Amino acid sequence: MFDDPLFTFTLLAVLVVLVILLIGLGGFAGGGAFNKKHANRLMRYRIIAQFIAVILILGVVWWRGSGN
């Protein structure tokens, strides 16, 4: 499973989403200047990263379902 490059990229994309989400939650919980300055940018990055992760997940499901 880990020798499949598509699975590896998918796992990496999911981890990137998790890191962005945790940074955003930490900034939101702390409030202050960091949250005001970076909250919207982090939200945009998370949405883009989630889109890429979902596309990769669908690709893995399709690839595995087609018997390859």
From TrEMBL:
Keywords: Membrane, Transmembrane, Transmembrane helix. InterPro entries: Hypoxia_induced_domain. Pfam families: HIG_1_N. The keyword DNA-binding does not apply. Residues 1-68 form the HIG1 domain. The chain crosses the membrane at residues 6-35, 47-65. NCBIfam families: twin_helix (NF033233). This is Twin transmembrane helix small protein. It comes from Sulfitobacter sediminis. The lineage of its organism: Bacteria, Pseudomonadati, Pseudomonadota, Alphaproteobacteria, Rhodobacterales.
